[in-house]
Amino acid sequence: MSQLDSIQKRAQEQFDRQSANYGKGHILADVDDVKAALALVPPSTGRKALDVATGAGHTGLYLAAQGWQVTLADLSPAMLERARATAKERGLSVETRQHPAETFPYGDATFDLVTCRVAAHHFSSPEKFVRETARVLRPGGALVLIDGSVEDGQPEAEEWLHQVEKLRDPSHARLLTPGAWTRLCEVAGLRAAHCELHPFKQPDLNWYFETAATSSENRARVLELVRTASPAVRALMRIGEEDGKIVWWWQRLTLVAVKG
Ligand SMILES: C[S@@+](CC[C@H](N)C(=O)[O-])C[C@H]1O[C@@H](n2cnc3c(N)ncnc32)[C@H](O)[C@@H]1O
Questions:
Q1: Ligand 1 mean position to 116 CA, how many Å?
Q2: Closest residue CA from atom 13 of ligand 1
Q3: What does the pLDDT look like over 99-142, one tens digit per residue?
Q4: Residue 209 and residue 170: Cα distance in Å, rounded?
Q5: How far is the CA of 191 from the centre of ligand 1 (A)?
Q6: Is the pTM of this model over 0.85?
Q7: CA-53 nearest atom, ligand 1
Q8: Ligand 1 mean position, distance from CA 128 (Å)
Q9: Which residues are CB-neighbours of 176 under 8 A, at least 6 positions away?
Q10: Who lines ligand 1 at CB under 6 A?
Q11: How far, in Å, is the centroid of ligand 1 from the Cα of 228?
Q12: What is the signed CA dihedral for 124, 218, 164, 169, rounded to 10 degrees?
């Protein structure tokens, strides 16, 4: 694997440490969002898929169960091990590869589908990731990207969320807006055929802290950010309390981009 940059190294360390939290009980095990996104992908004759930053493999293994020939890629060996174990449990055959999302070890026009779910906000260069995706897709192939996002034109909420995420999980890099993703796709030669935000309930701030093993100092700083959020941010994020738990709604982006 190529030399990792400091952001990639931080993500690798974080997810190697926390891999046990991303398995069966994790909210990402529910792949309804993946099913909905795949319904928007133009039909293709080929069935080769690459799942980038596969984590515990929830997305890639769903594809494999649907008959896709899938490569699961991640930079964390512990996450890949978890994905392999689940594949075995479910009797699914997949290939696993360890590499960063910014540099792919595949030839041009290798895949019909590239997926990347709830991971791109960790990438040191979303631009390189999109460029590499465009390179390895066959003409007519599609990128399905799902990630946390925030509306365009809401810089205050974007900054607030950035600070919260960075404190919760220091391997967080940046959430991009729909407009920013669309521009990256266009520059790389991918046409954004579908780009939509879906409100997604963050059900319990404490669970969210536990998943990332957030330090007690950073938990306190996040709680302070929640307490002092401006009325505009509070309204946009729908910050509230339910049964003693802090909840909020954030936006999850679904982008389907097609190679011409
Ligand atoms: C929340 S998990 C991904 C969830 C998964 N895609 C799913 O659908 O369940 C985030 C993953 O991104 C990986 N990751 C973070 N930065 C990366 C990078 N630059 N290149 C490759 N993988 C990366 C982490 O190792 C981790 O396994």
A1: 8
A2: 53
A3: 999 999 999 999 999 999 999 999 999 999 999 999 999 999 99
A4: 12
A5: 24
A6: yes
A7: 22
A8: 15
A9: 120, 121, 126, 147, 149, 184
A10: 8, 11, 15, 22, 28, 53-56, 58-59, 74-76, 79, 100-102, 117-119, 122-123
A11: 31
A12: 30
Rounded Cα–Cα distance for residues 149 and 121 (Å): 9
Question: Which ligand 1 atom lies nearest to the CA of residue 26?
Answer: 9
Q: What is the pLDDT of residue 220?
A: 97
Locate the ligand 1 atom nearest the alpha carbon of residue 31 and give its number: 8
For the stretch 207-233, pLDDT in tens is 889 988 999 999 999 999 999 999 999
pLDDT tens digits for range 16-51: 998 888 777 778 899 999 999 999 999 988 999 999
Query: What's 153's DSSP letter?
Result: T
Nearest 5°: the CA angle 151, 59, 162 is: 30
CB contact at 8 A, 201 and 33: no
Q: Output phi, psi for 12, to 5 deg.
A: -60, -45
- The two three-digit tokens of residue 203, written as one number: 């059900």
The arithmetic mean of pLDDT across residues 171-179, rounded, is 95
Q: What pLDDT is attached to residue 252?
A: 95
